[in-house]
Model the fold of this input.
Amino acid sequence: MNSSAMSVDQAPGVASAPVASDAGEHDPILGTYKRPPTEMVRGEGVYLFDREGNRYLDFVSGIAVNALGYGDPGLREALHAASDGLVHTSNLYRTAPAESLARKLVERSFASRVFFCNSGGEANEAAFKFARRWARTMGEDKAHIVALRGAFHGRLFGTLAATDRPAYRLPFRPLAGEISIVERDLNDIAAALDETTAAAVIAEPVQGEGGVRVLDHGFLRELRALTKERKAALILDEIQCGLGRTGTFFAHEQAGIEPDILTVAKPLAGGLPMGAVLVTEEIASAIKPGDHGTTFGGGPFVASVASYVVDRLADPALLAHVSETGAWFGAQLQEIAQRTGRIRGVRGVGFMWGMDVMGTASHVVSEAMAAGLLTCTAGEYTVRLLPPLVATRDELAEGLAVLEKVL
Ligand SMILES: *Cc1c(COP(=O)(O)O)cnc(C)c1O
Done:
């Protein structure tokens, strides 16, 4: 493993921190994740450091959350500034940070209103409710929500029904009703979308957990036309692929379409929990007080930090970097596939890539980690790469070299 120059004991703010992994001690965290014993203690740019002082180049970014990497000085300043203001008031009162953040999102999108919440799953749950509320204004039976093969929209009861992973779903049946999963095929979707029962179609422009699959732009345009025709809302889930990761502020911009509802979350507040649902004026006009709610969503502390993050992620220079460097990164992965013969397929866009490996993805992920590179899986055979959007070409090249060696 690589070793950092500075030993962890000398790192500020770390020496006195509690230790998580005392040998042999019972782990008090509920076992919903299988994870290595490694304890992460600090980060710097594109690197994470564990308690032993090992340095890891991070191509996970907290699952597409840490778009600005670790220790970004501007983000740190925004956090300090936010702590001087109100932290929480509830949504019983108006606060300026939430409104200013909402205005920024509206100005950069198709939307006219925004609902804030605390996670991606919550954003999609709200999107389902808003879509049904709107669709019901046209007919009592309009409740059916269609999701696509390979989709991941969350693990809450509504979103789980729209998530195409049997192992996540089966133990928790019965799931929410009138939500079905259909092949990524326009004829199949058209057959499932009866105008009298359809409320919405939900799609990720780039499927994340489902194996990093970029939906074809022509497919997205036809999906837009079909949902309009059947009077169903088009919900785009850009929780993972949105906010700069594909090289445009929103991924759907590249297909030249506009959804009725858009969900974002992961990188939105720089690592603080926040989700948002953007809606058109038509959807917004169907939503009345009491239709939905949240105690924490859009609180002034998290919203003011998110305002800073949105400015950074909407910066044309950053988006151009992600777009150009991302294309180069993808070409490098293709070359590694050729040279090693150990990759069956490479898919992706911007700073969001997946490669189908021989053997299991989790095996490659643990070998890469032992060699100082963090990656994650997207299904059983796909290794997913989500570098911080600020990673330079040299930093990406360093990770690619490790990857090639491991393969
Ligand atoms: C992560 C993710 C979610 C769920 O977000 P949580 O914050 O974990 O609830 C939903 N949709 C997509 C596309 C995601 O990547």
